[in-house]
Amino acid sequence: MHSPKPRRKPGPTTAGADSGEKLDELLISSAICNGEDLGPFVRKTFGTGKPETLLHHLKLFARSKESEIEEVCKAHYQDFINAVDDLKSLLSDVESLKSSLSDSNSKLQSIAAPLLSSLDSLVEAQTVSRNVDLAIRAVTHCVRVMELVSRANQHLQSGSFYLALKCVDSIESDFLEKTQSSTLKRMLEKRIPQIRGYVERKVSKELGDWLVEIRVVSRNLGQLAIGEASAARQREEELRMKQKEAEEQSRLSLRDCVYALKEEEDDDEYESGLEGSDSFDLTPLYRAYHIHQSLSLEDRFKRYYFDNRELQLKSDSQVSSMTPFLESHQTFFAQIAGFFIVEDRVLRTGGGLISRQEVEFLWDLAVGNMCAVLEDQFSRMQTANHLLLIKDYVSLLGVSLRRYGYTVDALLEVLSKHRDKYHELLLSDCRKQMIEALSADKFEQMLMKKEYEYSMNVLSFQLQTSDIAPAFPYIAPFSTTVPDCCRIVRSFIEDSVSFMSHGGQLDFYDVVKKYLDRLLGEVLDDALLKLISTSVHGVSQAMQVAANMSVFERACDFFFRHAAQLSGVPLRMAERGRRHFPLTKSQNAAEDTLSGLLKNKIDGFMTLIENVNWTSDDVLQGGNEYMNELIIYLETLVSTAQQILPAKVLKRVLRDVLAHISERIVGTLCGDVVKRLSMAAIKGVDVDIQLLESFTEQLKPLLTDKEAKEMKTAFVEIRQLINLLLSSHPENFVNPVIRERSYNALDYRKVAAVSEKLRDPSDSIFGTFGTRGSRQNPKNKSLDTLIKRLKDVS
């Protein structure tokens, strides 16, 4: 109950001494009555030192409020008295209600006592029921847990680690938190990590065993893949050779169709062989990967696998210093090839176990190591065959791995970079072989008793001059040097083509042709020149070498055709790019040596010319002795040379020999050996020349008309000289027209020397005394005129 707010009352007024004090008192009184802040008045009062006025007004205000307080208290006390009276009136009603409630409570307790006992029994039964239900559920839960535990143990014992882990995961996720048995729960919490660790160790051990085993499998796999590539290459080369033969021989198109069908069959066989080579077991790897995925260790397992494979690759890329690389190179490259065949399968079927970038990283690492090994090993090799063996195997490695998408350009570049070194080594080997073959030559015609010998030494190099097979035993026009050297050159071509082919370069005929030119023009030509200059000492040897050179000319045509065929170049294009005979130097040297030896032999017969009686008056009708000996020798020479020497070589050699005979006869007539000449001696020389002419006539079956005329020009000088000396008017020699027509091969000095020796002694100064009145012979007069004019010219 609230009292009404008192109204503001004006403060009491007091009389003051003056009006200012009165005003202050009024303000203080008003502030006190209105409840305003008295701070300013207090400070002012104490500041003036007159607090009595303020205290007085405060006391007055306090007395005025006491009366108000008294009135309020009186009003509240009356209300309290009224309330107490009301409570006293309710006290009796409360007592009656209390007794009524007590009676009702007694009755209720007496009635509810049996019910309460029944309720207690019910609550107790419900509690027992709940406990039994909880126990059943707990036992059921434990039974299920134990079933999973038992199943996990069975899977662990049988090696089914993934199923065991699934059981463990199910126990951990579905049963562990719901297990009420603290003992069982502690046991599960302890054993679950142990089981996972055990599974991880087991699969890691299996993976380690697989990593060891896969190295052996990779080596065998690489060898098988490279072997399949080699077999496929061999089939392709055989097919290509058959197709080229068919093209060159203009066979029917049906034949080509048969080849095409066979090629498809070969491709099928190659594919099936490669599929067989890809059969290898990746189960341990994939199981370990799957288990680690189940253990949420996928990234760690990927890293572990990649690191181990990288270490294996580095180990495989190392070359053992204990074994020569030539013996270990196949195992070395097969190991790497198998490694990347396995990685390709893992990339395609591993479900992300290894990425494309990681495989490319490993491949780049392997390529770098292989290139370094090849560079090092090639720099040490000094045998062309060793380098070729390694190159062929590397190219087969490239073919095998290119099928799986790996780039092998870097390896092919290393092989191409050592092309020049290989050919230099090959040229060096061929030089040694050719020197040995030439040094073993006996300069005898080769005897072949069987047809296979003819096929091996003649037909295989297309050295035959006729398609008709000869009768056996067959004596070839060449010696054993020719087929031996041909085999060396053919082997060089095949080795060169083998090195250049399958190396990334398609058009390599020009390279093969360049080194073939060097082999023929430098190695073989130099070896033949050395043989001619050091080992040829007789006519038969020189003749055999000259015959060999003619056969080499046909062999060189075969060499270039063979190189073009192996290089896949049409023969017409190879023929279009043909050059001159590369053995020209040795061919010319052989013919010059033969001519020189024959001239030496001729010089031996020409010594008999000293036995001729140059002043005799009798003419020998059968010719002089030296000429008869020469004719017999030349006829024997021709009959022998016809068997081995080609006609053009025989013609050149005989022409040189006849020219040499002519020069020796002219030299003898002009020399100091002959002091005087008789007309009978000149006629005897004419008979000798006729014998030579008769000899050349016998050569007409071997020569054309043009060649026969050229052969006679070999001794045209002696013929024109004899014709001049036997003519009726020798002075016609000084007539330019007649000289150009009939005596163009004569030198006027030689004519003057021989004419001076032919002059009649009676025409001398002392011979004119006895024949002053006689008439001079017209021919002698003409001869004197010729001598006089020739002296005037000189």
From TrEMBL:
One of its GO terms (cellular component) is cytosol. Gene3D superfamilies: Dsl1p vesicle tethering complex, Tip20p subunit, domain D (1.20.58.670), Exocyst complex subunit Sec15 C-terminal domain, N-terminal subdomain (1.10.357.30). One of its GO terms (biological process) is intracellular protein transport. Residues 57-226 form the Exocyst complex component EXOC6/Sec15 N-terminal domain. It comes from the Eukaryota. InterPro entries: EXOC6/Sec15, EXOC6/Sec15_C, EXOC6/Sec15_C_dom1, EXOC6_Sec15_N, EXOC6PINT-1/Sec15/Tip20_C_dom2. Keywords: Cytoplasm, Exocytosis, Transport. Belongs to the SEC15 family. This is Exocyst complex component. It comes from Brassica carinata.
